[in-house]
Specification:
alpha/beta; Rossmann fold; six-stranded parallel sheet; two-stranded antiparallel ribbon; globular; serine esterase; hydrolase; disulfide bond; transmembrane; Cutinase/axe
């Protein structure tokens, strides 16, 4: 009797090589499809839209001034509540000898004069009883913040406005610190918008190192700023920060420094302000803020023509303002 090879219960097994061939065939199909997608551009990264850059403005609001003078008074010459457009905290503030003549010389649409209102004090840490004043750190921080804020706000509102910055004593430290930030590329306004900076009796003055300003006076005093002479001293409320790292950076060619010989705020010999005698040195520094030399920049002269420091600053600023661009207004 013959048995049917296809009878029920009989199974046919595929040879192992068939599965290998089938797998290779599937793989080949996938590779072909992948190549087709690649060649057809289907797997290319979608083109990215290049970031749009806002073109620089060609005009600004009609209420924007062509130039803003930022005036920063010295110790005991301002107050936090003072009116920046009509300062009255100290009627004999040295900076009024600069801002007043400039305000009178130029119309409001050409020049905005803004006097930074800040506490402008320097508490004596060894006074008994305590003198009740704000510390130097608090005062300087407030002045710097207010000056920075107004520059940033005005630049946002008026992108074509240019700036002249000037400060005296503690105000010179603030103005110089702002200038150093701008010159390092991290200030509230671009370096290109700054016409010039003058610091009178800068406590962080140094005659050496990179990025130094132009010194007015012949010869410049041989000393250095009190904060440089006392660098590293930290007592409650008073931090002597030393020289500005990098000086004024790219802004240095536009920065002017005026220091009267013998003014210990900006012309301090190291032996006079000895860090080893921190409290005594700080006391000498505070007393020097009212010394005759420091108080006479409105009368001491800076050149052979008898020009005073404040007159020189007015003439310097007026020349910058007269030659500043006239931005279109919309």
């Amino acid at each position: 009797m013959l048995v049917n090879s296809r009878s029920k219960g009989t199974r046919r097994f595929w040879p192992a090589g068939c599965f290998t061939v089938l797998a290779l065939l599937v793989l080949a199909i996938i590779v072909v499809m992948l190549l087709w997608y690649l060649l057809a551009g289907r797997l290319k990264t979608p083109p990215t839209t290049p970031p749009t850059t806002t073109p620089p403005p060609t005009a600004q609001s009609a209420d924007c001034p062509d130039v803003m003078l930022l005036s920063i008074p010295g110790t005991w010459e301002s107050s936090s509540a003072d009116d920046p457009y009509n300062p009255r905290a100290n009627p004999i503030s040295l900076m009024l000898s600069v801002s007043g003549p400039l305000r009178a010389q130029f119309p409001d649409d050409r020049l905005e004069v803004y006097t930074v209102p800040y506490v402008a004090q320097f508490s004596n840490p060894i006074a008994l009883p305590p003198d009740g004043q704000a510390s130097y750190n608090v005062s300087r921080t407030e002045g710097t913040a207010r000056a920075t804020d107004v520059l940033a706000q005005r630049h946002k509102q008026c992108p074509l406005t240019n700036y002249v910055i000037a400060g005296f004593s503690q105000g010179a430290v603030i103005a110089g610190d702002l200038a150093a930030q701008i010159g390092a590329g991290n200030g509230p306004i671009p370096e290109s918008n700054v016409l010039g900076v003058t610091v009178i009796a800068d406590g962080r003055r140094t005659a050496t190192g990179p990025g130094q300003p132009t010194e007015i006076g012949n010869p410049p005093p041989a000393g250095e700023g009190a904060e440089v002479a006392l660098r590293g001293i930290n007592v409650p409320g008073i931090s002597m920060t030393g020289p500005r790292p990098g000086g004024f950076g790219t802004l240095a060619p536009k920065v002017i420094s005026i220091c009267a010989p013998g003014d210990m705020i900006c012309d301090a010999p190291r032996e006079a302000l000895n860090p080893l005698n921190a409290l005594g040195s700080l006391g000498a520094l505070i007393r020097s803020a009212g010394n005759p030399v420091h108080a006479l920049y409105a009368t001491n002269t800076v050149d052979a023509n008898g020009t005073t420091a404040t007159q020189w600053t007015v003439n310097w600023a007026a020349n910058l303002i007269e030659n500043a661009p006239h931005p279109p207004h919309s």
